[in-house]
């Protein structure tokens, strides 16, 4: 069984502004991981084209992250391994797939669309009626959702940060109701790990990791 969730992450900026910020955060995160000895290796970076979405950019990366896994996963895998990320970027729409050669039945597939609204589009990713019936929608509040202490950075807390350049911030309770501009990142995440006895535990862990990564990048 594939666990499907749609995350909706609102942010106090426009889709065009986010495009610039996303590139910066991805580069910064890659540098941070490389400095810790586990980095991102770019295998391919080339133009691509889709009949539906037009011209875009395809990237394939190897993400080395052994030490980032929970101990119960580390005990099952080789000391050194990597996850393959394949991404098709037709901004403001993207598709991303994660696989692992050591775990052939492990797969994460993500469809993302960015829109200038407060998370009000009910099916902007165009999923089927069957998928809609099984879809779980989860709203991620970048300001007030709880953050694990080891991942918290005061200088990045939206409840405390105010932009000198734009004058936006700080965010208070109910900020989505009055903030302008506002945009939403819609992410449909399909996670599958078909190993008896571990499937539910791993799929739940995958979605927890996704929530954390969205808070970091969004």
UniProtKB/TrEMBL annotation:
InterPro entries membership? PI_transfer (IPR001666), PI_transfer_N (IPR055261), START-like_dom_sf (IPR023393)
Got a GO cellular component term for this one?
cell periphery
Report a single Gene Ontology molecular function: phosphatidylinositol transfer activity
Phosphatidylinositol transfer protein N-terminal domain residues are: 3-209
The cross-references to PANTHER family, in alphabetical order and at most eight, read: CYTOPLASMIC PHOSPHATIDYLINOSITOL TRANSFER PROTEIN 1, PHOSPHATIDYLINOSITOL TRANSFER PROTEIN
Q: What name has this protein been given in UniProt?
A: Phosphatidylinositol transfer protein N-terminal domain-containing protein
Organism of origin is Cloeon dipterum
Lineage start: Eukaryota, Metazoa, Ecdysozoa, Arthropoda, Hexapoda
């Amino acid at each position: 069984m594939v666990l499907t969730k749609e995350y909706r992450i609102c942010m106090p900026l426009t889709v065009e502004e986010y495009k610039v910020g996303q590139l910066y955060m991805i580069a910064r995160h890659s540098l941070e991981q490389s400095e810790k000895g586990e980095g991102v290796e770019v295998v391919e970076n080339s133009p691509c084209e889709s009949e539906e979405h037009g011209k875009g950019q395809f990237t394939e990366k190897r993400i080395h992250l052994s030490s980032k896994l929970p101990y119960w996963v580390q005990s099952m895998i080789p000391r050194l391994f990597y996850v393959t990320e394949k991404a098709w970027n037709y901004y403001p729409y993207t598709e991303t797939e994660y696989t692992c050669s050591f775990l052939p039945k492990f797969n994460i597939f993500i469809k993302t669309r960015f829109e200038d609204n407060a998370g009000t589009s009910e099916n902007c990713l165009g999923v089927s009626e069957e998928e809609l019936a099984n879809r779980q929608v989860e709203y991620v509040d970048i300001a007030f959702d709880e953050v694990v202490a080891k991942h918290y950075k005061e200088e990045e807390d939206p409840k405390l940060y105010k932009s000198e350049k734009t004058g936006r911030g700080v965010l208070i309770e109910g900020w989505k109701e009055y903030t302008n501009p506002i945009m939403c990142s819609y992410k449909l995440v399909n996670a599958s790990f078909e190993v008896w006895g571990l499937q539910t535990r791993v799929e739940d862990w995958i979605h927890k990791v996704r929530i954390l990564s969205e808070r970091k990048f969004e």
